[in-house]
Amino acid sequence: MLYMSDKEQPKQNQEDYELLLAEAYKKIKPVESKIDRFETPKVEGHLEGTKTIITNFKQICSYIRRDQDHVLKYLLKELATPGVMKGDRLVLTRTISSKLINEKIALYVQDYVICKECKKPDTEITRDDRLTFLHCLACGAKKPITKI
Ligand SMILES: [Zn+2]
Predict the structure, then answer these.
(1) N or C: which end of the chain has fewer CB within 10 A?
(2) In this structure, what CATH number is given to the domain that contains residue 70?
(3) How far is CA 57 from CA 92, 108, 118, in A?
(4) Residue of 98, 10, 94 lying closest to 49 (CA atoms)
(5) Which domain range does residue 56 map to?
(6) CB 57 within 8 A of CB 83
(7) pLDDT of amino acid 8
(8) C-alpha of residue 22 to centroid of ligand 1, in Å
(9) Measured on CA atoms in the order 67, 146, 111, 144, is the torsion positive or negative?
């Protein structure tokens, strides 16, 4: 019996080690894949006559942590379409495919959210007298961005 137990001991340690390793990976993984997982939510909505209604515009802005007015200004300019917020809904005054709106929001994220240096989304927009910057909270990079 004693012999058996001695022989089992290293195996037990090996298992513990692998368990610990698995636990460690579990803890590391979310951080590693954070960039890949930053996927802007797709717009949801429908058409009402000649208008396009987007129902999750607020959620998208809060997910990408940008001021709703800033995103809206960009989007309306890019789409060359007037639009207004009515409560939680964004109303665009012509019919626009969700594909095109998603593309424009993706461009916004690329230019006004993702850090050009480290590609992380942990950024904020700061302003001085003349310029607007994208300031990265992850790597500290500060890049001028185009005023919308
Ligand atoms: Zn950065």
Answers:
(1) N
(2) 3.30.30.170
(3) 12, 13, 27
(4) 94
(5) 45-145
(6) no
(7) 53
(8) 29
(9) negative
H/E/C letters for each residue in 94-123? CCCCHHHHHHHHHHHHHHHCCCCCCCCCCE
Query: Ligand 1 centre and the CA of 27: distance in Å?
Result: 22
Q: Structure tokens of 133?
A: 């910057």
Half-sphere exposure of 145 (CA within 13 A, CB side): 25
Mean pLDDT in consecutive groups of 10 residues from the start of the chain, 148 residues: 54 72 66 61 96 97 95 97 96 97 96 95 93 96 94
pTM for this prediction: 0.74
Tell me: do 112 and 74 sit in the same domain. yes
